[in-house]
Design brief:
This protein has 440 residues and is of the alpha+beta class. The chain folds into 4 domains: 65 residues; 101 residues, PAS domain (Beta-Lactamase, 2-Layer Sandwich); 78 residues, Orthogonal Bundle (Helix Hairpins), CATH 1.10.287; 179 residues, Histidine kinase-like ATPase, C-terminal domain (Heat Shock Protein 90). The chain contains 9 helices and 13 strands. A hairpin with a 4-residue loop joins strand 1 and strand 2. The protein starts with a helix and ends in a 25-residue tail after the last strand. The structure holds adenosine-5'-diphosphate and magnesium ion.
């Protein structure tokens, strides 16, 4: 009996617990449902926000993309070269004009150090690196550079540091223009003016001077014969003869320089012409007793034929070689080389005449092709002026690179299809004139 009462109570309690549990369960389910609904609403809200942000982001990306494209097309359509580097001096951007001026492909230099392809011809540090080191911008700096195809160019550059929003330097950018053509035109114009003036003067006085000079030289030679070797007057007469010879040389050079050039064009091998020149140089050195100058030949062009006047080119090469020899009074090495450089389809032949002599002072290097510019006591200052006329007549170009106390190299670029200038030549003008090789 007792057992039954207990069983009944127990079952009643269990029902109450169950109802409470059920109630609790219901409550939790309801709360869970509410939370779920809230979560769903929040997710929908976030979805909407995300869609909006995505749309904004897409707009921004498109805007950025079109801005980048605009900047790129701006950079590629300007005629100035633009190169940017990071703090390590590695190229991060190089535009089309820079590719053209420097004769290279941007893809080949991206990420490379700027000095590996953008060198000043005097070997000094690139402006971009100088600006990064000094933390200063540079404006309108003119300098000569050598492209990777070994062509020398005049450029004018400005370098600015690139800063981030916090004004920290993150790189530098150089904007540069190719001034080579302008400089060359200026030079031609200057030379043309000088030529006209000198031509007129030379025509007037050269012949007037020459005839009496020849007489003085002739009579002095007769006079010299009348004196014994021991007679001090013989030395004086010899001085007169030497003086007239020097003067004659100057007048002859003046005439060569002033008269129009007539080229006798033939298909000639440049190395043959150079060999002939070197023969004369060696002979000149032998006569002067110079034994401490080594001559080195380095011809690297296999077929080096071109339409040219071999005599005139020989004259030009000779003047350059003799200047080189004269610059090496204490001995040294004269190197003559030929190589192919960029130019027309067939390429230019480049002749190099290099010495290890005194070099040319920076302050005067721009004057050396000027007629009458000389730093030598016995110089006429016409040797290089003649050289530059001969090279120009062949439609070629001449460049010089020099370092004081280290030496000088002259580069002569001769085009294979050079359309040379064959000026009309006035024979009457040259009557009685002998052309001597110039031992200037
Ligand atoms: N290879 C060279 N090394 C050093 N100086 C040179 C060289 N070639 C030319 N020069 C300089 O250029 C000047 C002009 O040369 P040039 O016209 O041949 O005249 P000149 O030899 O009569 O002085 C020289 O006086 C000299 O100062
Ligand atoms: Mg000379």
């Amino acid at each position: 009996m007792t057992e039954n009462v207990f069983a009944k109570d127990f079952s009643k309690n269990r029902d109450v617990d169950l109802v409470a549990a059920f109630h609790l369960f219901n409550q939790y389910t309801q709360r869970l449902e509410e939370a779920y609904n809230q979560l769903q609403n929040r997710v929908k809200e976030i979805d909407r926000e995300m869609a909006y942000t995505n749309a904004c982001l897409k707009d921004k990306v498109e805007e950025l993309d079109s801005l980048t494209k605009y900047l790129n097309s701006l950079l590629s359509s300007i005629h100035s070269g633009v190169i940017a580097v990071n703090l390590r001096g590695e190229v991060t951007m190089l535009n089309k004009a820079a590719e053209k001026i420097l004769n290279l492909d941007a893809s080949g230099v991206m990420g490379k150090r700027v000095e590996s392809f953008f060198q000043s011809s005097d070997g000094s540090k690139p402006l971009l690196l100088l600006a990064l080191e000094s933390g200063k911008n540079c404006i309108d700096v003119e300098r000569k550079i050598e492209t990777n195809k070994r062509v020398l160019k005049w450029i004018e550059s400005s370098v600015s540091l690139i800063k981030d929003v916090n004004e920290n330097t993150i790189g530098a950018v150089e904007v540069f223009r190719d001034l080579s053509e302008i400089r060359e035109l200026e030079m031609r114009l200057r030379n043309a003016d000088k030529l006209a003036a000198i031509g007129a003067m030379a025509a007037c006085i050269a012949h007037e001077i020459r005839n009496p000079l020849n007489s003085i030289e002739g009579f002095s030679a007769l006079l010299a014969r009348d004196f014994e070797d021991s007679d001090p007057r013989k030395k004086l007469v010899r001085n007169i003869i030497q003086g007239t010879k020097n003067l004659n040389k100057t007048v002859t050079e003046l005439l060569i320089f002033a008269r129009p050039l007539r080229l006798k064009l033939r298909n000639n091998s440049i190395s043959n012409i150079l060999d002939k020149t070197l023969f004369f140089v060696a002979e000149d050195m032998r006569q002067r007793g110079l034994t401490n100058i080594l001559i080195r030949k380095d011809y690297t062009v296999d077929t080096d034929f071109l339409q040219c006047d071999s005599e005139k080119l020989h004259q030009a090469f000779l003047n350059l070689c003799l200047n080189a020899v004269q610059s090496m009074a204490c001995g040294g090495c004269l190197t003559i080389f030929t190589r192919l450089v960029e130019g027309n389809v067939q390429g230019n032949i480049q002749v190099g005449i290099s010495d290890t002599g005194t070099g040319i002072k920076k302050e005067v290097v721009h004057k050396i092709f000027d007629p009458f510019f000389t730093t030598k006591q016995e110089g006429t200052g016409l040797g290089l002026a003649i050289v530059s006329r001969i090279i120009e007549a062949h439609n070629g170009k001449i460049y010089v690179e020099s370092m004081e106390d280290r030496g000088t190299t002259f580069y002569i670029n001769l085009p294979r299809n050079g359309n040379c200038h064959t000026d009309v030549f006035n024979d009457a003008y040259l009557k009685n004139e002998t052309l001597i090789p110039q031992f200037v």
